[in-house]
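Lab notebook page, bench 4
Experiment: in silico fold of construct C2
Operator: M.H.
Input chain length: 304 residues
Purpose: comparison with the prior construct
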Amino acid sequence: MKPFFVFSGQGAQAVGMGKDLVEAFPAAKARFEEADAVLGYDQSSIIFDGPAEKLTESRYCQPAIYTMSCAALDAFREKFPEVKPVACAGLSLGEYGALYAGGAFRFAEGLKLLAQRAELMDRACRSTSGGMASVLSGDPEVIREVCVACGIDVANFNSPGQIVISGEKEKLAEAVEELKNRGMRKVIVLNVAGAFHSRLMAPAGEALKPVLEATPMTVPAVPVYHNYTAAPAKDAAELRANLAAQVAGSVRWEECVRAMVAAGGDAMIEFGPGNVLTGLLRRTLPDVPYFNVNSVESLDSLAL
């Protein structure tokens, strides 16, 4: 088997995630303890005990999902040290977990970066009135055309039949109405804090650039397929540029998955809470086997 590793994005969080891994695997416990020390607050108690409303806030949610996903990876490495990925990728904030897995930076560096990213994005959300909507079974070209006409953006190309659009609430409402007029009946407005991966996040992406410049990182030993380009970065400068552009740019997830399979990946292993990415894989490449690593039970059931 030549697996590719993928990492969960925002929205997959759940109170209690990773607690059983911490109790069963020293590597996972060490990761959570390191995160608490780096962040300067008791993140573990927010993750394990909630409340859910606090865990859902971007400034807590993004570091929490990164920590839990990396802890799941470290537990997996503890149990299956011989299994190595041929490629990695992560959905939005999950890209940071993929870069940790690939060796671009240490866990602490990724966590500090993500904590600042979350704060900047949270600030951008509070200063704008934005929203997002999921368009199911729509024509991508028509969706692009409507977004341009309404002054909003395509946030995610997730899988065949699932595209997410993002922008100012009034303009988003116009786009939703226009898409329905064009025959797309399954357009669902999402319950989110802002217009992620849209032009409204551009100030956050710009503000992240100096933070990225000050962070030690290198081209990962394992190819990491970036959301912004659907390809690995050629050097550290491009890696940083991709992470900055990703904040306001489209997430080209379907292309990332297809590219990793084309590069030789023959099975997906998703690390982190939930199973969103393996669900998207079933709609994109249904013949590719997949596994989720998010609990002791999931690790015990793996036959690799």
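Observations: The CA atoms of residues 199 and 248 lie 6 Å apart. The two ends are 8 Å apart (CA to CA).
Next step: discuss at group meeting.
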